[in-house]
Amino acid sequence: MTGFAQVLAAAERHDDGWELEVPESWLQGRTAYGGFSSALALAVAQQAGGELAPLRSAQLAMMAPVNGKIVARAKVERQGRNATWISAHLSSGAGMAFAANFVFMRPTANTLEINDRPLPDSVVPLDDALPIPADALTVFMRSHFDVRFGMPEADRKRPEMCWWLRSRDHGRLDPMVELMLCGDGLPPAVIPVMPQPVPISSMHWQVNLLTATPQSRDGWWLLRSTGDYAQQGCSSQGMGLWNAGGEPIATGIQSVALFG
Length: 260
Fold this sequence. Notes:
- By secondary structure, the chain is mainly beta.
- The chain has one domain (4-107, 119-258): Acyl-CoA thioesterase, double hotdog domain (Porin, Beta Barrel), CATH 2.40.160.210.
- It contains four helices and 14 strands.
- The chain has helices at 4-10, 34-49, 139-144, 175-183; strands spanning 12-14, 17-21, 27-28, 31-32, 55-62, 69-79, 83-92, 95-105, 145-149, 160-167, 200-209, 221-231, 234-243, 248-258.
- The strands form two sheets. A twelve-stranded antiparallel sheet has the order 1-2-6-7-8-5-11-14-13-12-10-9. Strands 3-4 form a two-stranded antiparallel sheet.
- The radius of gyration is 18 Å and the shape is globular.
- The two termini are 33 Å apart.
- Residues 23-105 form the Acyl-CoA thioesterase-like N-terminal HotDog domain.
């Protein structure tokens, strides 16, 4: 299997972007796994921006299938005193497939301190969490990640998903790129309560980073998504990510299309 670090190393890098082939082991149906596309867009943006402040926010739009031979490009949109905005997109022969906007910002002094992102009440500690059977995972997930259940079995029948997850490329990637690669690892939160399986597709993902230096024991992250809306083919879910010590690392919201 081709790991993400190998994908980056094999990319043909030109002045106007990177060219690469999406390995089949990273596909989720017709398109690359969303974390793959997000992490790739961030890696290209980091190169375009030179020496950047830490990533603090990302907007990620999954517009069309990302597969086969693709081109990744990025552009600095604005360079301010404290923050830099960079856009990135992935395209194929059929046109643009994925678009991203990233904000990189240096820490600044402020008088307000709020940190109210506690761990979910029923989280299973990492050391006690059971591995998810390989046959219950998608091909890309069992090929590139280690995954454990993050909540008791009795709690897995709500519009909620919670897993412990680690990239097998841990330690071989930029920490923010590794975080983006892992951050979209959960299936949509509404899956446990759906009456029957239907095709689904992520459409838009907003991520806010709560730290400039994401770190966790042995590369493990706790991911949680909670569905709060599903009507007329659209669903919305809140998302959170913590490290193995229970410290909040990222928060977000995602829209997911339900085709049935």
